[in-house]
Automatic annotation (TrEMBL):
Gene3D superfamilies: NAD(P)-binding Rossmann-like Domain (3.40.50.720). CDD domains: 2-Hacid_dh_1. Keywords: NAD, Oxidoreductase. PANTHER family: 2-HACID_DH_C DOMAIN-CONTAINING PROTEIN, D-ISOMER SPECIFIC 2-HYDROXYACID DEHYDROGENASE NAD-BINDING DOMAIN-CONTAINING PROTEIN. One of its GO terms (molecular function) is NAD binding. The lineage of its organism: Bacteria, Bacillati, Actinomycetota, Actinomycetes, Streptosporangiales. The keyword Oxidoreductase applies. This is D-2-hydroxyacid dehydrogenase. It comes from the Bacteria. Residues 89-263 form the D-isomer specific 2-hydroxyacid dehydrogenase NAD-binding domain. The keyword Oxidoreductase applies.
């Protein structure tokens, strides 16, 4: 944060000190994107003019007083796109090539020949057409998968996602996919979108991959679907409650990959987050337009902005 300290007087606080620090602050860099401390500490008269969050998702940040007030919200869109896309491709390959069984058999020193699946020609549905979803679409297409997107706006020809179907046609898209990848923001419209009904529409051989937000999936419904064999597997990097409790059945279910919200975290990611914030801090101090301004009503950066 040395560069930021050259542009402004920086104060580092924890949640317990936040209420005292906010009235004198012009801007807040919310590093802990899972914290609810800001909502509890927000001044009744209104808070700072700008809040930046160290994540692409802003669902934990958009409490009513912030949404209704004058404060500008920006996110860290652009930092995680390619790393998450690489992670998703790795998960697709891990499923298709049954790497989990290979590692287990190696640990057991057992030689057991098996056949695996091809990914070339497999059908992937990417739900969410923001930068992360687009990076996933490009990566999977390059690996030979047939990609379709699903989002708010339908497009017949999209450079990254092929055909983009409107969310009203999600049922149809789910029924055709071998891999369903969730990269949508968590909003009132998307919360619980993958529920028992959606899982019933998926192919028995399909796998679900969630790198968006845990709340996109109705977790109890997913557990039931996996137990009943209604889908073949799931790779989950995000959960409604994090850390995932040790009592969750997802830890030990066959065909399930659990990772601790790390799909976008690669070597150097913290430095990238700080560089983005520092660039915006310079813009804020000089009165220039900020990058990644979130539409607080929609819950994500508007489509007319570039990261």
């Amino acid at each position: 944060m040395e560069a930021a300290e050259g542009l402004a007087r920086v104060r580092y606080v924890t949640g317990k000190d936040l209420a005292e620090a906010l009235p004198g602050a012009d801007a807040v860099f919310m590093w802990d994107f899972l914290s609810d401390a800001l909502a509890g500490a927000w001044p009744a008269a209104g808070g700072p003019g700008w809040v930046h969050i160290a994540s692409a998702g802003v669902d934990r940040l958009l409490f009513p007083a912030l949404v209704e007030g004058h404060t500008i919200v920006t996110n860290s869109r652009g930092v995680f796109d390619e790393p998450i896309a690489e992670y998703v491709l790795g998960l697709v390959l891990a499923f298709a090539k049954d790497l989990r069984t290979t590692f287990r058999l190696q640990d057991e020193r057992r030689w057991r020949h098996r056949e695996t699946e091809r990914i070339t020609g497999a059908r992937a549905l990417v739900i969410g057409t923001g930068p992360i979803g687009r990076a996933i679409g490009r990566r999977l297409t390059a690996a030979g998968l047939a990609v379709t997107g699903a989002g708010r706006t339908a497009r017949e020809t999209d450079p990254d996602l092929g055909t983009v179907l409107p969310m009203e046609r999600l049922d149809e898209a789910l029924a055709e996919a071998d891999y369903v990848v969730l990269a949508a923001p968590l909003t009132p419209q998307t919360r619980g979108m993958i529920d028992a009904a959606a899982l019933d529409r998926m192919r028995p051989s399909a796998r679900l991959i969630n790198v968006g937000r845990g709340g996109l999936v109705a977790e109890p419904d997913l557990v039931k679907a996996l137990r009943a064999g209604r889908i073949a597997g799931a790779a989950l990097d995000v959960f409604e409650d994090e850390p995932l409790p040790p009592s969750s059945p997802l830890w030990e279910m066959p065909g399930v990959v659990v990772s601790p919200h790390m799909s976008g975290d690669v070597v150097g990611w913290r430095d990238e987050l700080v560089r983005l914030f520092t660039d915006n801090l310079g813009r804020y101090a000089s009165g220039r337009p900020l990058r990644n301004v979130v539409d607080k009503r929609l819950g994500y950066v508007g489509s007319n902005q570039r990261g």
